[in-house]
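ARCHIVE CARD
CATEGORY: sequence design from structure
SOURCE FIELD: tokenized fold
FIELD CONTENT:
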């Protein structure tokens, strides 16, 4: 897991062949970008622009992915994402290959990642994460998740 500001994303562009295109998309993203899916390179790299209200930690659900790396970027608002090594998590719903996701119980020990507008977190397949958690209070967040085929 990596977290930083979009301003410093150039540090990570070389970690994967598709990271540079993903960060360029985020840097050029208008504030009024419609919600939905935007292909950067078909199923190899695409962005999901979304808006939702954050929830209490007790309602958090851990997940992980096999085929995709997530870059989760906060465009507006703030949220907490919880992180834990996938190897330490207890499966509640086995991996679904069609949706590329497995779900896990909320573990007793997690690392909170508090993100505000302009910041991102990168979650690799070995990273369990619970997105959409309140950072202080519930609020509406506008977030872009870029899915990059690992």
């Amino acid at each position: 897991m990596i977290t930083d500001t979009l301003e410093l994303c150039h540090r990570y562009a070389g970690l994967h062949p598709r990271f540079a295109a993903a960060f360029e998309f985020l840097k050029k993203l208008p504030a009024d970008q419609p919600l939905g899916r935007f292909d950067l390179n078909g199923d190899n790299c695409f962005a999901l622009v979304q808006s939702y209200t954050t929830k209490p930690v007790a309602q958090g659900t851990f997940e992980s992915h096999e085929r995709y790396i997530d870059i989760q970027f906060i465009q507006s608002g703030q949220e907490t994402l919880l992180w834990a090594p996938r190897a330490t998590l207890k499966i509640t719903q086995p991996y679904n290959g069609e949706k590329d996701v497995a779900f896990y119980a909320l573990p007793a020990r997690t690392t909170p990642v508090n993100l505000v507008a302009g910041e991102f977190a990168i979650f690799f397949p070995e990273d369990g994460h619970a997105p959409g958690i309140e950072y202080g209070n519930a609020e509406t967040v506008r977030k872009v998740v870029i899915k990059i085929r690992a």
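CARD ANNOTATION: The chain has one domain: 2-149. Helices lie at 19-28.
SHELF: design records, drawer C
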